[in-house]
Write a structure and sequence with these properties.
- This protein is of the alpha+beta class and 57 residues long.
- The chain is built from 1 helix and 2 strands.
- A two-stranded antiparallel sheet has the order 1-2.
- The longest helix has 14 residues.
Length: 57
């Protein structure tokens, strides 16, 4: 079971680089199915718009 948890952790680290709102990954093995489900919470409050970069910066 340790190996499966290690694999899911690596997949989770890779998936966290993606701009997802919700995520569900299923890995089907011969005798079991591993499932990773995550949902990103929206930040509370207002956020300023992203700053536009000028060519000299």
């Amino acid at each position: 079971m340790f190996e499966q948890q290690h694999i899911l952790k690596k997949i989770e680290q890779w998936a966290d680089r993606l701009p997802y709102q919700s995520l569900k990954i299923e890995v089907e093995l011969s005798n079991q199915t591993l499932t990773l489900e995550k949902t990103r919470q929206r930040p509370i409050g207002f956020q300023p718009p992203p700053q536009e970069r000028k060519d000299g910066d």
